[in-house]
Amino acid sequence: MRLTRRTVIAGGAGAAGLILAPAVLGQGRPRVVVIGGGAGGASAARHLAIASGGAVDVTLVEASPLYTTCFFSNFYLGGLRDIESLQFGYDGLAAAGVTVIHDLATGIDRDARTVTLAGGAVLSYDRLVLSPGIDFREDAVPGWSLDAAEVMPHAYKAGPQTVLLRQMVQAMPEGGLFVMVAPPNPYRCPPAPYERVCMIAHALSQTNPTAKIMILDPKDKYSKQTLFENGWLKYYDGMVEWIGPDFGGGDVEVRPDTMEVLIEGEAQPVDVCNVIPAQKAGKIADIAGVTDDSGWAPVDPASMRSRLDENLWVLGDASNATEMPKSAVAANSQAGVAVAAILGDLTDAAVPAASYINTCWSVLAPDDSVKVGGAYEPAGDHIASVGSFISAADEDAETRRLTYEESFGWYDAMTADIFG
What we know:
The chain is an alpha/beta fold. It is built from 11 helices and 24 strands. Helix 3 packs parallel to helix 10 and helix 7 (about 190-205) packs parallel to helix 8. It is globular and about 65 Å long.
């Protein structure tokens, strides 16, 4: 299964515009409000406006006027890309006919079908799409809280935290220790913490080659494990140490005030500590009452419609999409299915059978990237994998170089599809 610009867009939100030519039923334009301007929400809003030909009133609510992509942010941490290259505004959505409101959604009344914003405005909707990304379980790592994120950053919501983490790495003393506390499953972009290690190792190898990196991991295995470990051995031999749960990786406490990490009760001084906590759906999904005990929002596998409210959809990282990982490609793909389902609700448009895709590229070193991905379909009460691929451990240098170049093409195609 080889993903190109064409297949990435055809399998994602862009497909909705090719399939649907709706005629809106009833009087007046139905109103759809989308909360969250990332890969899921912005894709859904933009393609809903395009696919409806202006017949649906689409409003996007996103607090930040500038979106920094988490995907590809590890390139910035490695010094291979600047932060501005990861940032996008919403002019492309406005040009597609979306009303963009930069404010924070603070309340949802599902009975009245209204969204309340921090600025005091109240928006009415016929259908609501939530794509708020992630929030953190603050009690997940003893000693860590959001208040400590300026000392021990998570950098798992891209933007100022990403910049802070890079500055801390650059300021590490010669021979210093960088510690990552990795998250438990499920979490945003399964390969991302280990790609981050590659990129921080690359940056340190240029300026601080005697520095060390320690990964404390509560999981006994992780995405692309063999590929990453081979990469660490090849490019950063002796710099990276992974400590799994059998050796204390799951029994960790942090002390931000003294810059220490306790591993099974034993204190380890650190120079930089990147804490990536356990995660849950973004806060507005909780406020809306569409999450369950897992912390994520259960959805209908054939449409991404909330299982708890027929007028509401949940996309991307916030959803419990069962066998689908949480990634930008997955969110964009889910947006395409949701757009078709919403237009089917509001118009006389036919709704095609749902299908989903995912691909995650990971850079090991300049000119050496690997990838994993698959295709997914509804299967009873869940979304199931129906095919997958992963880079081979024995690929030659040219194949890896081509995968590296392919990732840049994907990024450009994906961000164009999301933001216009």
